């Protein structure tokens, strides 16, 4: 048989070289694979990732001043805020005209509300102006506006408007970290101790979350160890005790803790009945930090036990036996041989519990009272009660940053692909 | 409990029993709150604690009045209906999209697998309050806030990571030779898909769907923000109930939810055993 030199390149049935054909097939398979993932990717993008990006933009958005007072903002650009003099008539004329317009559209209070976050009093200033401007019909607007409220005659008022008329602001982030931009000088200053609440709240969230993580570890470790060392039959039964609470609605578990811990609750009743405390000395175990810590330790305990258990199952029992037979005291064998091997489980469990804890909302809201609430509760408050969405968003973005950083750590220790359920 | 080896010293024996007591206490801590809620839900009076009659096992101390309230009051009826509707539709969306994506992700030479995977499971990582806040802002802007569709979409997003994780886990152990065998025997890709792939991944898909269902059924933070009274679910109703007037109806609802949980767990366990049997592994 003759082998021709030109035919050394392998070809497929239709004559295309094998290499090209293979590359084509692989590309096709890649496209098919990708197009199967695409629908979900688009869905998550629209229904989840864009809303989060939207929150990100809300946290720096400051377009409201420019939107409602466009001419005044432009006119203010020519005014030197350090000159010690009031802006000129042009600015006042623009302001009166625009408040009139905004009053009709019922938007004048929104500017006031925005500026009120930076300096209190602006909300009432703009609400009052909305009522008074209709009687100002002709120039001079300056005197008329100052007559309606003497605050319009203060340089400080105009400094604040000019300072916070930019399209974007870092004001919400500064507020979220207890800083403030001085309207007169434009310098960033930290708030006096009494008014600084957010750093304290972040700190408390971290501290209580660490405490909860530590408690779940202390409580969960012995049980995980037992589950990993007893016979499979027994551990299959006992693991139900971990999985049942894990899968029970967290509201159900929070409700049970309310029933157990409250003043007229099961535990207090029991203690009174047994005589450890008397009826007037009922313990306050709920609507404070204790309530949050106890309920959340219970709720997050399975998240510690399950990773610990799955790591401990893989540690051969012969390790400890070998150490003991070589003369180590059982304690030392456990401490020096077994314990270090559980490291990945401890890392995974702790980070998981901590990540979940710092973003928790429901349980602190129901059992936390005022001393056991987390940063999430403040975010919810700003979204649904105070309506300061910018500040709520900024707090949310900071919390998200912390969680993502911790998650990267988790990914390095455990790997996203190794995440298991139940 | 295995009998102790005879060579153990006395302190070791003491420690052994102490250890069992500690573990027993932890198991008690885990399960007690769930156990205590059930008898309390049969309370005849509107309290969250055991009355003297209950402790004396006097039948007068017990009643089904809170269960009656749960099934007959308008608030709770609406909540049950909404919970089922929202969980049902969001599960369907999550399962369909999640399974399709997992099949794609598990194909050989999938580009950017890790990046895609982390994007797809991001709804599970982001704290719920942040997801809820973002969705609240965005959905109110596009008119989905306070609609059933909005809540269904939000819950579907939260459920997809669970489907993706369980189905990809099923597919990791998938033997690609089965596909090759089927194709070499002359089956078309469609036949291969329905006769070979589908039966093997079904347990994974069903458990993923159950996870998605539970996620929606238990979820409260997102529904509080994205939904309104008209979209109230059972957890929504429980949350506002605890905040406003505490009534043992909440405990009745909680007990019923525990029963639903037990049913789901049993189903999941049976599915797990079936998968193992199909793969030729004896269930442990």
TrEMBL record, chain B:
A single BP term in Gene Ontology: transmembrane transport
Keywords associated with the record: Cell inner membrane, Cell membrane, Membrane, Transmembrane, Transmembrane helix, Transport
Highest taxon above the source species: Bacteria
Sequence intervals crossing the membrane: 14-37, 79-103, 115-139, 151-172, 193-226, 246-271
Alphabetized Pfam families for the sequence: BPD_transp_1
GO cellular component, one term: plasma membrane
SUPFAM superfamilies in the cross-refs: MetI-like
Membrane topology: Multi-pass membrane protein
Localisation: Cell inner membrane; Cell membrane
Domain ABC transmembrane type-1 residue range list: 80-269
Family: Belongs to the binding-protein-dependent transport system permease family.
PANTHER family xref list: INNER MEMBRANE ABC TRANSPORTER PERMEASE PROTEIN YDCV
Protein name: ABC transporter permease
Lineage, uppermost ranks: Bacteria, Deltaproteobacteria, SAR324 cluster
């Amino acid at each position: 048989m003759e082998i021709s030199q030109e035919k050394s390149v392998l070809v497929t049935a239709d004559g295309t070289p094998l290499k090209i054909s293979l590359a084509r097939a692989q590309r096709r398979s890649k496209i098919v694979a990708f197009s199967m993932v695409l629908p979900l990717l688009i869905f998550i993008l629209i229904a989840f990732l864009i809303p989060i990006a939207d929150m990100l933009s809300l946290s720096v958005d400051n377009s409201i001043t420019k939107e409602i007072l466009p001419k005044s903002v432009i006119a203010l650009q020519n005014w030197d805020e350090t000159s010690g003099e009031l802006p000129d008539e042009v600015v006042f004329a623009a302001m009166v005209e625009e408040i009139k317009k905004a009053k009709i559209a019922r938007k004048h209070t929104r500017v006031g509300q925005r500026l009120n976050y930076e300096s209190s009093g602006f909300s009432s200033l703009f609400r009052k102006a909305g009522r008074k401007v209709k009687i100002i019909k002709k120039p001079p607007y300056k005197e008329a506006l100052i007559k309606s409220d003497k605050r319009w005659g203060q340089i400080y008022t105009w400094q604040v408007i000019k300072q916070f008329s930019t399209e974007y602001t870092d004001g919400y982030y500064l507020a979220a970290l207890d800083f403030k931009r001085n309207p007169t000088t434009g310098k960033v200053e930290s708030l006096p101790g009494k008014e600084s609440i957010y750093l304290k709240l972040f700190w408390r969230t971290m501290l209580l979350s660490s405490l909860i993580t530590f408690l779940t570890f202390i409580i969960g470790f012995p049980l995980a160890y037992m589950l990993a060392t007893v016979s499979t039959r027994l551990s299959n039964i006992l693991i139900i005790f971990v999985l049942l609470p894990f899968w029970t609605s967290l509201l159900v578990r929070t409700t049970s803790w309310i029933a157990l811990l409250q003043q007229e609750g099961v535990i207090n009743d029991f203690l009174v009945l047994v005589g450890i405390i008397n009826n007037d000395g009922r313990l306050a175990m709920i609507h404070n930090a204790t309530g949050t810590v106890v309920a959340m330790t219970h709720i997050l305990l399975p998240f510690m036990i399950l990773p610990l258990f799955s790591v401990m199952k893989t540690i051969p029992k012969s390790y400890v036996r070998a150490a003991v037979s070589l003369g180590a005291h059982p304690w030392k064998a456990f401490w020096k041989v077994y314990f270090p091997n559980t490291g990945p489980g401890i890392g995974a469990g702790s980070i998981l519990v901590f990540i979940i804890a710092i973003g928790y909302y429901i349980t602190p809201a129901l059992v936390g009272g005022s001393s056991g609430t987390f940063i999430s509760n403040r975010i919810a408050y700003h979204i649904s009660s105070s309506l300061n969405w910018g500040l709520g968003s900024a707090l949310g973005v900071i919390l998200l940053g912390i969680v993502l950083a911790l998650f990267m750590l988790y990914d390095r220790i455990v790997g996203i692909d190794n995440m298991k359920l139940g | 409990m295995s009998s102790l080896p005879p060579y153990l010293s006395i302190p070791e024996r003491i420690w052994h029993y102490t250890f069992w007591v500690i573990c027993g206490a932890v198991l008690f801590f885990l399960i007690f709150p769930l156990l205590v809620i059930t008898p309390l839900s049969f309370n005849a009076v509107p309290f969250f604690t055991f009355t003297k009659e209950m402790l004396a096992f006097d039948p007068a101390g017990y009643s089904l009045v809170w269960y009656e309230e749960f099934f007959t009051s308008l608030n709770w009826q609406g909540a049950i209906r909404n919970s089922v509707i929202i969980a049902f539709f969001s599960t369907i969306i999550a399962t369909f999209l999640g399974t399709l994506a997992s099949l794609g992700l598990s194909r050989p030479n999938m580009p950017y697998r890790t990046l895609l995977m982390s994007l797809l499971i991001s709804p599970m990582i982001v704290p719920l309050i942040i997801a809820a806040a973002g969705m609240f802002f965005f959905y109110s802007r596009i008119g989905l806030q306070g609609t059933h569709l909005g809540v269904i979409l939000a819950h579907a997003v939260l459920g997809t990571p669970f489907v993706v994780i369980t189905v990809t886990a099923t597919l990791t152990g998938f033997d690609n030779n089965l596909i090759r065998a089927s194709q070499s025997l002359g089956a078309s890709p469609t036949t291969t898909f329905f006769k070979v792939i589908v039966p093997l991944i079904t347990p994974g898909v069903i458990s993923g769907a159950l996870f998605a269902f539970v996620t929606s059924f238990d979820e409260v933070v997102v529904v509080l923000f994205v939904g309104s009274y008209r979209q109230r679910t059972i957890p929504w109703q429980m949350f506002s109930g605890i905040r406003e007037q505490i009534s043992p109806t909440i405990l009745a609802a909680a007990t019923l939810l525990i029963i639903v949980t037990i049913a789901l767990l049993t189903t999941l366990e049976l599915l797990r055993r079936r998968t193992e049997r199909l793969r030729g592994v004896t269930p442990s």
